[in-house]
Amino acid sequence: MSRTPTCFKCGAFVRLLASRIQPCLFRQHQSSRANLRRLLSSTQPGENVRPLDGVKVLDLTRVLAGPFATMILGDLGAEIIKVERPGAGDDTRSWGPPFVGDESAYFLSVNRNKKVHTSVAVNLKDPRGAKIILEDGDPVRPGVAMTDLATGLYTHGAIMAALLQRHKTGRGVHIDCNLLSTQVACLTHIAANYLNAGKEARRWGTAHESIVPYQGFRTKDGYLVVAAGNDKQFVKVCKVLGLNHLSEEPNYKSNTLRVQHRQELLHILSQRFLEEVTGEWLRRFEGTGVPCGPINNIQQVFSEPQVANNGLILEMNHPMAGRIAVPGPAVRFSTFESREPMPPPMIGQHTVQVLRDSLSYSDDVINQLLASGTVAQNEVH
């Protein structure tokens, strides 16, 4: 996952060795939103310093959750050293404080010896989590491993908080992030409904449990999501659809009533949406204030001008694959930008470099390690 220089690749858990990190100050300009936008978008000369410059990460993770977290840390300036298939090694406690650690996302806190892969963890009956539950039929797995990625995001945030805490206290902390905790935490209001009212979750497909209409509708050539979050927006939806009489119907005068009469209302709306193509509906909804948008395929996503404007397509030269493109970081900073993104490394691409430059091993020792097969160097041309 890493887009930063690395030496070895993956393993079983993360240890973060932090040197020093300076606190980041954000000062909001109070005069106007325009000034704030200019403040956020401008980068002054000499300010291209990334938040985690000077932080070293020893990454022994594998599969997805851990590498996704360290990729984000690398995007923020951390130096990532990834190790593939580590042996028993020294007790990590011998490194001494300060360190920040992340327990592997693939070890459940209830049983440290039991590995749990995503395909097992997602079998939790979670209508909003790793498996999408349609209104009928079998559960459907989403296109990406959302639980792994969310665990990586939790891990990244926890490490950043721990770094800030270390700056204040001078002490390190052990962090435990795992797939199970991520899935349960992300249930949010679904979990609260059960814990406080004993309410079991239902299947809703793309619809919303307590707001109508708030879902995807089939059009003549695709799908359109329309979200009428209040009564005024419902009136606007009716106007766009040419169904003004619906907003005056007693059964649809309030959202509570619309939820009660969900099926009959959605049938009327669904039939109307089928009469035009998605693009025409988008044109008609433009400027109404009603949240709506198409359900795009991947080609349409990366054809969207705002995707390019947000820097979400990063091109770089890969040592084996040549010129490649990957998704860019989701967050942008006013004080730095990724001008020279690094490609995902080959396994063992930087082995000798790290042994020599970071660990100060002599050439004789490095050659012995290579000859014995203890380490491997990938000769990339």
List keywords for this structure.
381 residues; alpha+beta; Rossmann fold; formyl-coa transferase, domain 3; 14 helices; elongated
Low-confidence stretches: 4-32, 90-133
Give the strand order, joined by hyphens, for the main sheet.
3-2-1-4-5
Q: What is the CATH topology descriptor of the largest domain?
A: Rossmann fold
The N- and C-terminal alpha carbons lie at a distance of: 21 Å
Shape: elongated
Whole-number total of structural domains: 2
How would you classify the helix and strand content by structural class? alpha+beta
Helix content percent band: 25-40%
| Gyration radius over CA | 26 Å
Largest sheet: 5 strands, mixed
What is the C-level CATH assignment of the largest domain?
Alpha Beta
**What is the strand tally?**
10
Please report which band the strand proportion falls in: under 5%, 5-15%, 15-25%, 25-35%, 35-45% or over 45%: 5-15%
- Write the CATH architecture name of the largest domain: 3-Layer(aba) Sandwich
Instruction: Give the topology string: H per helix, E per strand.
Output: EHEHEEHHEHHEEHHHHEHHEEHH
State mean pLDDT (0 to 100 scale). 78
The CATH superfamily of the largest domain is identified as: Crotonobetainyl-coa:carnitine coa-transferase, domain 1
Architecture overview:
The longest helix is centred in the middle third of the chain and has 24 residues, at 146-169. By secondary structure, the chain is α+β, with helices and mostly antiparallel strands. The model is unreliable at 4-32 and 90-133 (pLDDT under 50). Helix 2 crosses helix 4 (146-169). It has helices spanning 33-41, 65-75, 118-121, 146-169, 179-185, 188-197, 231-241, 255-260, 262-273, 278-285, 298-303, 305-309, 351-357, 363-372, and strands at 14-18, 55-59, 79-82, 100-103, 173-176, 214-218, 223-227, 292-294, 313-318, 322-327. The protein has a five-stranded mixed β-sheet with strand order 3-2-1-4-5, with helices on one face. A three-stranded antiparallel β-sheet has the order 6-7-8, covered by helices on one side. The chain has a two-stranded antiparallel ribbon with strand order 9-10. The chain has two domains: 14-188 and 303-349, Crotonobetainyl-coa:carnitine coa-transferase, domain 1 (Rossmann fold, 3-Layer(aba) Sandwich), CATH 3.40.50; 214-295, formyl-coa transferase, domain 3. The protein is elongated, with a radius of gyration of 26 Å.
